[in-house]
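Example record for the data management plan.
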Amino acid sequence: METASTVERIVVALLGALIAAGAGAQSYPAKPVRIVVPYPPGGGNDFLARLTAQKLGEKWRQSIVIDNRGGASGMIGAEVVARSPADGYTVCVCASPEIALNTTLYPKMSYDPTRDFSTVTQLAVSPLVLAVHPSLPPRNVQDFIALAKKRPGELSYSSVGAGSPQHIAGEWMKLLAGIQVIHVPYKGGGPQIVDLMGGHMHSGFLALPVIAPYLKSGRVRPLAVTTARRSSTIPDVPTLAEAGIAGFDVSQWYGVVVPAGTPAEVTGKLNADFVELLKLSDVRARMIDMGADPVGNTPAQFGELIRSEIAKYQKIVKETKITIN
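Corresponding structural encoding:
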């Protein structure tokens, strides 16, 4: 009888835990949710955070507060999330630098992206664009490579800073194509595009949202995108892989993570709700307009992407010998 009684108590306890977990998922969120954006207002993370916050706020009937914590290539904001309570009320709309790229460039990071976060979903992927000033003769990547080989060390390309995805893309292209092009880092996409349009730079790797408004005017000429697939925003522009640099794939991707230890039922609800809104036609249209292709995948798939991106950047940084001073 004592054994039966013990079994009954265990069953009752398990049922209680399951009921409590279900109730927790159904009641979440029961108070305002904070979305941390690890960058200043106006960037891709900020746009996606505000777009999704509006839709989720309507669905949840809760206030959603956008908390911009820029600095240190996204690492300040990411650390805020990593150190927050694991209750689902602090969410991070992250990007590739602070989650994958920086682990190779900054060995003394204050958090571990694979240990200190639970993944929710990848929101979107956006290419970088290799573009040139219209005065430069090349109209495709192979012509650009040929000109760079003819004039070694004379051509320049810009990025938004040392260690940025733009810098990584430029140095990797130089390595694979066997060319010498001078890297000129800028402090942001705004000054970068201004100098390219003004003819002060020969070329540049630019984020698609930065360059998109100027493509139709002809003030810059796109040669290729850096992602493995063409962009829905500029489908006529080939990829670098299509242009002859096989295997090239550098992207600016965005996703959602929460502090490690967040209850699985809460993470599951966040995943379901984010993926659902990414299927809405108006959301998809606005994302494509700003240069980002919507994704929406499982937590496991997003986690696998992060691990593969970390391994890829470790290889690229080692091969290109990129360092941060």
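Summary line stored alongside the record: Confidence is low (pLDDT under 50) at residues 10-24.
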